[in-house]
Amino acid sequence: MARTTTSPPPPVSLPRISWSTRFDKLQRRFAPFVFISPFFILFAIFGLFPIVFSMYLSLQEWNPIQGLGTMRYIGLENYTWLMGDPWFWRSITNTLWIAFASGIPQHLVAIPLAFALSRGIQSFRHPLTAAYFLPYITSAVAIALVFQTIFGTQFGILNQTLQYLATAPWSAWLFGGLADSLPVNWLGRAPNIKPAISLLVWWQFFGFNVVLYAAGLATIPKDYYEAAQIDGASGRQSFFHIPLPLLRPMIFFAVTFTIIGNLQLFDQPFILTDGTGGTSQAGMTVAMYLYRTGFEWLEMGTAAAISWLLFLLIGTLTVIHFYFFGRSGLETRD
Amino acid sequence: MKKILALALAASLLAGAALAQTTLTLGLFEPLNEHVELVLPQFNALHPDVTVEIRTLGFGDHHDLLVTNLATGSGAADVVAIEIGYIARFVAEGGLRDLSEAPFEADRFADDFVDYAWAQGRTADGRQIAMPTDIAPGTLYYRRDHLEASGWTIDQVIESMDSFLDYGRELLGHGVFLVADAGSIAEGLIRSNVPAGDGIYFAADGTPQLNSERFLEAARIAQIVREEGMDAQIGAWSNEWYEAFRQGTTAVEISGAWLGGHLQTWMAPETSGLWGASNTPGEMLVSWGGSFYGIPTQTDEAKLDAAWDLVLFLTTNPEIQLKAFRTINAFPAMPVTYDDPMFEEELEFLAGQQARMLWADIANRIPGVATFPGDMIAEEIFGSAMGEILNEGRDVQAALDEAQMLIQRRIRR
Amino acid sequence: MRMTASTPRTARRNERTGRSPVGQFFLYLGLIALALLTLFPFYWMFVLSSHSQSTIFSAPPPLWFGEFLERNYNALLARLPFLRNIWNSFYIALMATITTMFFASLAGFAFAMYDFRFKRFLFAFVIGSLMIPPLLGIIPYYLIIQFLGWLDTPRAIWVPGMAGAFGIFLMRQYVASSMPRELMDAGRIDGASEFRLYWNIALPIIRPGLATLGMLTFIGQWNNFLGPLVVLNSRENYTIPVALRTLQGQIQTDWGAVLTGTSLAVLPLLIIFVFASKQVIEGLVAGSVKG
Known about the structure:
Distance between the termini of chain B: 75 Å
Shape of chain B: globular
Radius of gyration of chain B: 24 Å
Order of helices and strands of chain B: HEHEHEHHEHHHHHHEHEEHHEHHH
Radius of gyration of chain C: 24 Å
Number of strands of chain B: 8
CATH topology of the largest domain in chain C: MetI-like fold
CATH class of the largest domain in chain C: Mainly Alpha
CATH architecture of the largest domain in chain C: Orthogonal Bundle
Largest sheet of chain C: none
Helix content of chain B: 40-55%
CATH superfamily of the largest domain in chain C: MetI-like
Order of helices and strands of chain C: HHHHHHHHHHHHHH
Helix content of chain C: 55-70%
Number of helices of chain B: 17
Oligomer: heterotrimer
Number of domains of chain B: 2
CATH topology of the largest domain in chain B: D-Maltodextrin-Binding Protein, domain 2
Largest sheet of chain B: 8 strands, mixed
Number of domains of chain C: 2
């Protein structure tokens, strides 16, 4: 202690501690609150008002171009109207379909891939990781041009490949059955739009997950593997028994983000359907419907109600995810 | 001493100029900016006290941002350009100043513009919200080589919708598609023969018309084209579309007159001389594009005079309109310009045809169509129904009845 | 930990990975095939940036470089203050990255290493904030920025997101899986302040994760479009995505120029990626602190 005093005790029976000790106690007690405070301060400034605004808005009828003063209170009408709106329900099923069809394969590919990159090979680790990550930074413009070329009906690369496979002597026995249904109108016919969008989403994001998992694998102590090696575990065994359990927090994180991100999917369906949602709105996601309702059809109140219903859907699925996997996914090392 | 005086004089002049100076912002989308940048010095010469600052955004971004700006009541440019596809949104719904009122009194210019462009910028209750600057008379571009090979004349082809379809059947025998997309025929047909006072999708009293005979007929014809294999099933603005023009796999395209300019400069330059332009089959008198200028309500009162001067300069000055035609191929909205020698030029790309005179004639004859607030959503609902009819083989009556039901649900409030 | 006790394999196997040469061959084959799939559109973007408008849209499209790069580049410079736009994007992305790395790791550290009142609730709140669809926020966002007088300034873009929930969650997971709690107690016994525990102990351990977060933040901010579109309004202040989109016209777009700009704009991201993934890979090779 820096300052020991011999003076009589103070009237109030405080424990006799020095300022520095007191500060030390204080900083230990409040440290976590201080550490997390920037988020909450910024949220109070930038996050709270938009939420209150859109909650209020969802109870109004409002055409945005008439200005803020023209809102009209209509109670829950926006919500009840949406409950009976066929396009809204279609957008919900579309979103769920695409979210699962693109989301699950992302992780099924990314986890073993990250493992293969980190433990399975010794050279080209770096360029390969970079290659997988590239779609994530490829601009939307380039993606739009490329994928419309890939999915083109007459000259599209995908159809030409299928055409070749269906007629070439070496592969006709396997793909010959396709010949009758070629060329496939990928982006024009309703049943094909969702698979096309899902493929694009998968392509764009599996590498992102590979990078997340690679970073997660980097935390696994090397001696875990060495121990396993000494015990003679095979590559497959050391995958299922070492990294997988230790990767759990990262998997939990990545899956959470896939759920939240995929349910808010906007760019990819927008690109592939030229912003329309495609035939029969087969590719219109909830986020797209929300955007079009608010900014194109100028029904901002209804759009706000859609955003809260979407929030509800995301919240429900996230809570289910946390309920089943949160215990292991959020655990800490001890 | 003299020097000092001169300096003082210069300074006071500058100060005076600075005091009277009005700075206007002008919100444009590509390619209007290319034209305005060229003619702005002329405006500055006429109005030295006004400085114009151009803000250009992407085509879609410009219109989307305008919605946000009008919503928040600030941030919009003092004068804004609006394309025809978005005009219904702004004309019928507010956010822009009523130009029929003082100090603008725009109604005096009504006779200077082609009817339909003027009507498009006007609300059903007669308020002029936007001033037209360019238009796009609808025309039929056709490949002369396919026409000759088939032994038809263009007058036979466009005589009626039936003869047009017969031409398509004839072409099938030559391995050529009639059009790229059957849907484009329906889009044209619903826009023609609209009863006076009605909008495209709504009757004068606001009742949706999506399952009226006009729509049913348009959808049936498009369906015939699709079912008999007369269209290449290629959507506009795709690689395949451009390629179809280059290789001549399709014989005609119904479009705005502007398509020729794009075919010539980048879409299919090598097909020069192979094309012709004509009236549309069965006299579908329709417009395929156009732009307008308007003044947002949030524009500062003090700037209104300058803003209006700028709008008038860009819209009511024949010389400026003709310059826009030359630089960005924007067809003028003022009939008085059609007497310019430029309209008699023989267009090399169209094998020497004097097509601009044809388009001027079409432009003068297109009837005005009223604009309704629900036009954008109605367009979407109809397009969606057409997709189901053409791509999924849905029954015309059923699809359009459902479309009518959907639009009724939408406009219920 | 469960460990399967099996018989030792032959010595031919690669010592480190435990794989046979044949297995290695097929593994590489698969990895490279997948890489081609992801590389192609990226490569193609560069190819198209060297072509004219009409060759870009020919079918089949060009697969090798053309001769229009210089023309496209000049067209780009003639129509945009391109370098200025690049600088704006760089400045905004850099500020966002530095602040996010600091604030998010600090908060993530707190959520992983401490037990405090309302922790579960506060953490759920952070996650919950991610679930709000952002599209409608654009109107209130504009109003807030206008209220603060920040219109047409870079800070309007990077300040609101500098302690984002994504980063906090990522950092929380990262700290939780890589940092043993004993280290905290050990540090405390040595008399380190709580901030020192974060700065001197946690930060070095989570370096690979931090690098990942920094990279993702930089990329996200670099490509951010909607925010800048709404609050920036002079072309000198535009960021790259907004500026490039001003070239997208009603009917015709100079795609050659757009793609040249896009290709140039992606180069800084590549550099950032290489830099960041070096940190991650080094982490991989070195392993980390023992549990």
